[in-house]
Design a protein that fits this description.
499 residues; alpha+beta; seven-stranded mixed β-sheet; four-stranded antiparallel β-sheet; 17 helices; 16% strand; elongated
């Protein structure tokens, strides 16, 4: 199966699971809640109250309310949040409508599957709801309703999603008193509220159990002399492996310990791999309360008054100083050194845009941080655009030698009448799942010799258009206002300030 096919199947399987969850949830509401006039939480609960009071079908109220909430969500939270929610709302509306048409009796009433045992219906309905929501939420699905309200409130206030949903559900269930008090009297009305809260509690417990079952993880510690083969084999599953140094105290010899965290459902596969390599090794497996990070659950703790972090894929202090001044205090800008990145970033593209994106993607993939990276090319008209993508390593592929680079460029231009040139900077940004590029260009010409002591790179020989001095003579303040990097960063800042 090709990479594209795998991506398509992965996305399709998510919607299959969400659909299964919605079917289970819709069955619980339609066959156990509605026939016994029990109110659960969420927009489904509001729609149920409208149905009990007026006879207006549940799915119609559910759809109308959710459409209004979705319009607000699209405007405030964006389309990315709403795609699966829209699918969930539309499918659940259709499924409840269809199921009612299939089970209604001759008089148009929903059947009572457990006769007059309301409490049993509440338990069964709550279990169906909890399992269905658990499957749906585990795959980032949503039934809309109070989930949308909670997400909107959470965006502007430091209140957890669970707290908002719980408050909404308590209000909805308690309000059922006013629907039933005139219809059945106070005693029955209070009973309905009690049944509603029983549903709320059981559904919540079942939801937690269902989600935790799918998210349970285990930690393997493997003591084997064949640790390399074991680690390589586990890596083929897509799971990361860490090899620790240890010492066997009985033998007083060095030993390696392979540590691996996987989902519990993957444990048997890992055992098989270990045994196929070394059936006599020592293995410890332990249940883990929670695993957070790539491939597992995201860390959802919200840092109070914390600025968003962006990594600038460089350790060049001159670049960092320029960019930090221009970005200001809205973001925390970290360098590669700040995230302990000691690896050589890839720069194998034949364009500066490609190189910038390669570096940003590398940091995002291996370190997890949202990141932006730049690449700059000095393009001389008389040299057909050279040095271009090779600007930093123009004189040698071994490293950045500013003096050698300038010497080579001045030598190549010695017999050229046309000394016009331009600096072009491309910035690639990976932020909140999106990929963006920005470009800054400053035109000018190459001086006959070095002039000025400030700046770095080719600054002593580049004279920007509209000036008679080189970047190295103009100084940092002037350069930061007119340079190619300044213009690209300005576009980056304008973009980020809208977020």
């Amino acid at each position: 199966m090709g990479q594209k096919a795998k991506i398509i199947w992965s996305e399709l399987s998510v919607y299959i699971y969400i659909t299964i969850g919605l079917i289970i949830y819709g069955t619980g509401v339609t066959l156990f809640m509605l026939p016994y006039e029990v109110t659960s939480g969420g927009v489904t609960g509001i729609a149920s109250l409208i149905f009990f009071a007026t006879g207006f079908e549940v799915q119609n109220s559910y759809l109308i309310i959710n459409l209004a909430l979705l319009l607000a969500a699209v405007k405030i939270l964006g389309w990315k949040f709403c795609v699966k929610t829209i699918y969930g709302v539309l499918f659940l509306t259709f499924y409840m409508w269809l199921l009612q048409r299939l089970v209604l009796d001759a008089d148009g009433n929903l059947p009572r599957l457990v006769q007059d045992q309301t409490f049993m219906a509440v338990v069964l309905g709550a279990v169906f709801e909890g399992i269905g929501l658990g499957i749906c939420f585990s795959h980032d699905g949503s039934t809309g309703g109070t989930d949308i309200i909670a997400a909107i409130v959470h965006k502007y206030r430091d209140i957890s999603l669970g707290q908002v949903i719980m408050l909404c559900d308590c209000i909805i269930i308690s309000s059922s008193y006013f629907v039933f008090v005139d219809k059945y009297g106070e005693t029955v009305a209070w009973q309905k509220i009690v049944f509603g809260f029983v549903t709320f509690i059981i559904a919540g417990i079942t939801l937690d159990y269902s989600m935790n079952r799918t998210r349970q993880s285990v930690q393997f510690m493997i003591f084997s002399r064949n640790y390399r083969k074991i680690a390589d084999k586990i890596n083929t599953t897509g799971r990361g492996v860490t090899v620790l140094d240890g010492q066997g105290w009985y033998t007083k010899t060095e030993r390696k310990v392979v540590v691996c965290l996987v989902r519990k459902r993957e444990a048997q596969q890992i055992f098989q791999m270990i045994k196929s390599v070394d059936p006599y090794c020592f293995v410890s497996m332990a249940n883990v309360q929670g695993v957070y990070g790539e491939g597992f659950d995201p860390m959802k703790a919200k840092l109070k008054a914390a600025k968003p972090t962006l990594v600038f894929a460089t350790n060049n202090e001159h670049k960092l100083e320029e960019v930090r001044k221009m970005v200001g205090d809205k973001f925390e800008i970290r360098s590669l050194d700040d995230i302990n990145c000691r690896m050589e970033l890839p720069e194998t593209s034949d364009t500066i845009e490609g190189n910038a994106m390669q570096k940003a993607e590398f940091v995002k993939r291996y370190y997890g941080f949202d990141c932006f990276a730049d690449d700059t090319g000095l393009e001389c008209a008389a040299l057909g655009g050279e040095p271009g993508v090779h600007t930093a390593r123009y004189a040698s592929d071994d490293g950045h030698d500013n003096e050698a680079n300038m010497n080579k460029l001045l030598a190549n231009l010695a017999d050229k009448d046309d000394r016009t040139a331009q600096f072009r900077t491309a910035i690639a940004l990976i932020y909140n799942g999106g990929r963006y590029t920005f470009e800054g260009v400053v035109k000018g010409h190459i001086a006959l010799e070095r002039q000025g002591e400030q700046g770095f790179g080719y600054d002593p020989i580049f004279v920007p258009e509209g000036h008679t001095e080189t970047f190295a003579q103009l100084g940092a303040d002037v350069k930061n206002n007119i340079s190619h990097r300044a213009r690209a960063v300005q576009q980056l800042c304008e973009f980020l300030n809208k977020k």
